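Table 4 source record.
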Amino acid sequence: MVSTAQVLGFAHRGARAHAPENTLQAFTTALTMGARGIESDVWLTADGVPALHHGGSLRRRGRRVPLAELTAAELPDDLPTLAELYDACGTDLDLSLDLKDGRSADAVLAVARSVRHDRSRLWLCGRGSAPLLWRPLDADVRLVSDTRTTHVADGWPTYLRQVRSGGGDAINLRRRRWSGALVQQVHDAGLLAFGWDAQTSRRLRVLIDLGCDAVYSDHVDRLVAAVEGGRPRAG
């Protein structure tokens, strides 16, 4: 089974509860507060630059303009690129990137290689089995399936086999969908269990006690406390 040395804690969209989301301020604040992992969302600009933004569009002259229609030079100062995140935060971190536009996988990996980020600490997330399409691009990068109910229409065993055989590393579910039995089933399939939307100390603790390998939260102080109090892992 793929493994982590300890429970991973990802600051969702940076320190979203403490600073404007998906900004360099949020990312650096998260690290200053003790986070070892950061999460963000990626869209590709018109000139092929991975930009970090959740919604993927900006309001310009009364209409929503997709980032795919803007060049990197046209982005506002508070909307960073992936390269700028690395410049500000370095590479000694786990980085979870939700690739909203699957076309960005090549560009994301190119940036990560250029700064020599250990790609076993780079987690590329996408809906369902979409991340499996990125395995041929890099043997070391970690692939995470953001799994919804529709993806498991044929049952969990079938789906987990599909993800694992396709080169996936982890299943990511909203925190209330996890149970101890499902975590064990995911582990038995050779995959990791990631839980997102854990916003209170109690919910973080529940996910860790269930056996989840990673948790996502907007509240970095609660996240760090929960992870530091979590069980050690063999890695």
